[in-house]
Amino acid sequence: MVQLVKQNKGKIFGLFFLIVLLFVCMLSSLLFGSTHYTLADIYSMITSFNANDLTHIIIWKERFPRMVIAVATGASLAVAGVISQLLTRNPLGSPSVLGINSGSIFFIVVFVVLFKVSDLNIIVYFAFLGALVAAILVYLLGSLSYSGTTSLKIILAGIAVNAMFVSFTQIILLMNQKGMNDVLFWMAGTISGRTLDMIIAVLPFLFISLISTCFLGRSMNVYASGESIAKGLGQNVMLMKLTLLVLMVVLAGGSLAVIGNIAFVGLIIPHLAKSLVGNSYVWLTPYSTVLGSIFLLAADISTRLINPPAEIPLGVITAFIGAPFFIYIAFKGGRERGKSMDRSIET
Known about the structure:
Layout: H1 8-31, H2 39-47, H3 54-88, H4 100-114, H5 120-142, H6 151-175, H7 180-187, H8 196-215, H9 217-224, H10 227-232, H11 237-259, H12 265-277, H13 281-305, H14 314-346
InterPro entries: ABC_BtuC-like, ABC_transptr_permease_BtuC
Family: Belongs to the binding-protein-dependent transport system permease family. FecCD subfamily.
Membrane topology: Multi-pass membrane protein
């Protein structure tokens, strides 16, 4: 993959530029929708909030929570994708492909529909648990052979686990159709209608996990060089794997507990970041953090502008972009493997 920015000064400037772009997107999220507002409206809301002013109410109760949620969950899903691609050593690795998303949704459906749990603070932990169970199943299935774990086996195991959890979820909903409305909130995958209380419940987990992943950049570089090399350099590989797994589960599960099943963010953003700054996780993680927030903010804004006053589901936008990208990465990987095989045959 071509690396556009190679010098550290350029990477610092690029990160600063992306942060500025992020603030522009955050402001745009407050301004644009089925009804457009002005900077004066936002200033008036901040300086002299009026609970009887419909403009102030919409900006504060609807637009501001959407902005905060998009920033937090976009960054979290993107970094979860970075970690999953590192753990699987596969460019197709992402929480959605590995069954993490469907595992979280399944556990949410079970406890909301069957056990009538409605407290978001409790549901968050069930989302974490579902993501963890899915991750463990994928790892176990991917290592069930004498040849050990390979990236292809992990991806195939993820596809199988994803199909299993999706099937179980559909069975539960078919048997309890009255509970469909209770969980449609998470299955649809959207930011619309979410409140600040929802993101506040998971924000500490997401923030700590994002910061921790950024600080692990150098250790992730060592791990990425290969397990044998990492062990030779003194790294505790099992502890590193466990740490990354927990971080991925928290980032993906926490995001899904708030916005539901939004796919492909964790697939697209790491590749976009790699095309800018290369494979060093010292830069890849912070770039993915900012790019993930920008991507989900832009996608959310577009859901309001494409067909106003109606909104297109956010999952449709991310899938529209992500599905062709998935095919491209898969085709590119297969073509590169084919070339390497041809070279080995020639030699």
